Amino acid sequence: MSQQSYPVVKPYLKTHTLVPENQETPIEFIQNDTIPSRLFYRRNHFSYPSLSHSNYWLPINGLVSAPLLLSMQDLLQMPAKTVKAVLECAGDKRSFFKPKVFGEQWEKGAINQGFWKGVPLRTLLERAGLREGAKEVVIEGYDYGKTPDSDQVYTYARSLPIEKALHPDTLIAFEYNQQPIPFKHGFPLRLVVPQWYGMASVKWIKQITIINSHFSGPFQSIDYVYYPNKENNEGAFPVTTINVNSTIQQPRDMDILNRGNHIIKGIAWTGEGYITKVEISTDNGQTWTNAKMDNRDSGQYGWVLWSYEWAAGKSGEYVILSRATDSTNRIQPSEPFWNRKGYGYNAMDKIKVKIE
Q1: Keywords assigned by UniProt (predicted)?
Q2: Residues 95, 98, 101, 105: what is their CA dihedral angle, to the nearest 10 degrees?
Q3: Which domain does 165 fall in, by range?
Q4: Which residues pair with 144 in a beta bridge?
Q5: What is the pLDDT of residue 151?
C-alpha cells in the first residue's frame, strides 16, 4: 500500500484576532480523541478578565430558598463527575457560508473535545432550593466590554432553561483533562453544557442567578440567534443544540497525492443521540460508501473517529465529501441552513485533491 506521507509540522493555533483573542484548532493535525489545552480553540467577545483564585467566591441567588456563597474549597469538597464532551463554537465553519456572512471567519477548527470534571449545576441548585416560578438560570462571567453594535458595556451572560440546568451532566467545571482549567478557557470555573453549542458554556463564572422570566441579554436575544432572513428578523429562533456534522481531517484540501491507496479520515459528532453512520464520496456525491467508525464507545457526548481506505487508481482532480447521520435520523445536508449571523454550519464536508 502506498500512503501519502505528510511533512512533520508542529501544529499551532490559527489566529483570527488578537484583541479579543480568537484562534482556532488545527483540526487536521489532531490525532487523538482529546485536544490538549495548548491547541484548544479560543473564542472571546472581550479581553480576558482579571480575577483572583485565592479570593474566589461563587454566589448563587435569585429565586432560591437559601442563597449560597461558595468558595473553591466548598466546591472541591462536593461530589464531582467527569464528562467527555465536544465543545463547538456556534460559528464553526462560518467562512463556508454562501453568500458570505459577517463575524469571525472560522474554518473547521472552532471545535474541541476533552474530559471535563466538575460539580453538576443541579447539585448547587438543589442545595440552594429552587422556589416556585423559577424558569431560567442565568450564568454570568467576569469578562465584559462593549458589543459591536452598542456603546453600552455588558458582561458575558447566558441563561439555561431549568430543565437543561438540572440535567445531571451540565457541570460547573474546574478541571480539563485532569488539570485545572487553563485561565484562557475559564479558570477557575466554567459552565459546561454538553450537546449545546459552546456559547452556552460560560467561562470565568461570576455568579448564578435564578429568574422567573426569559433572560434577554445581548448574547441571548441578539447574538446566538438564527436569523433566516437577510432583511428582517422574521422567523428568528435561538441557537441551542449542536447540529449533526463531520469534518475530513486527511487528506487536506488541495493536497496533491500519488496514485495508490490513501486513508481518508476525520471526525463526526452530533448534539442529539449519537452518530450511526458516516459516508464518504470520492466522486462529488455521485456514489457513497460507508466509512469505518473507529471509536463507537466515544461516550454520549463525544465525537466518532472514522476512516475510509480509498484506492485512487486514476490521475485527475477529485472532490471528496463526508456526511454523517445520527440516531435521530438527522443527516448532513448538501447545503447549509443559511442564516444572517452564520451559526450552525453543517453541510457535508468537502475537499478537493489531485492525484498524479
Answers
A1: Metal-binding, Molybdenum, Oxidoreductase
A2: 10
A3: 14-238
A4: 155
A5: 83
